[in-house]
Amino acid sequence: MIFGRSERGKPPVEPVTLKILVAGGFGVGKTTLVGAVSEIKPLRTEELLSEAGRPLDDTRGVEGKHTTTVAMDFGRITLREDLVLYLFGTPGQDRFWFLWDELATGALGAVVLADTRRLEDCFAAVDYFERRSIPFVVGVNCFDGSARYPADAVRQALDLDADVPVLLCDAREKETVKEVLIGVVEHAMAVGARRRQPATT
């Protein structure tokens, strides 16, 4: 069943829709990730990198990057007939972070995409979601030619709580991205369940 159509004799299923943010540093692969899994043509707000922004935009490791997201990326994926995710990719540069509060409103959780060559670039996103108590997972985007590290090593380098999932992925590959998205939904549901438990005295 897809949005109102169902098998003969079965009532249509009204899907639950969830909002997921995709965040991380400049050039880490957020736009690529959204595009890899979106079942609709992704909405992109990319502009060419300018000379004015060159001193601010660190292109180490992504020298071939010529555009940047200036507002958001948007995509949609149906995980099951009753579960649809709306994906909102955030801009990576700090001069566009004023948009994050608006994008974060109503979000179930987030993916913080990380590049092990520039791990420090995702510190700000980790801090943002920790401060606002928004559940998140870290998706390590395994770029060609970059060193591979165990999830626990990445967790330690980012000083993450033990319950924050760290998942390896390739932002170009739909199946690995789906695993990350499933991971954030499951993590957010587990966090929500813990928060609903009555406090013990």
TrEMBL record:
* UniProt key word Hydrolase: yes
Q: Which SUPFAM superfamilies match?
A: P-loop containing nucleoside triphosphate hydrolases
Signal peptide range in chain numbering = none
Q: Which domain of life is it from?
A: Bacteria
Alphabetized UniProt keyword annotations: GTP-binding, Hydrolase, Nucleotide-binding
User: Which CDD domains does this one have?
Assistant: Ras_like_GTPase
Q: Where are the membrane-spanning stretches? A: none
InterPro entries in the record: Gliding_Motility_GTPase, Gpn, P-loop_NTPase
Q: Which family does the UniProt entry place this protein in?
A: Belongs to the GPN-loop GTPase family.
Q: What is this protein called?
A: ATP/GTP-binding protein
What species was this sequence derived from? Streptomyces aureus
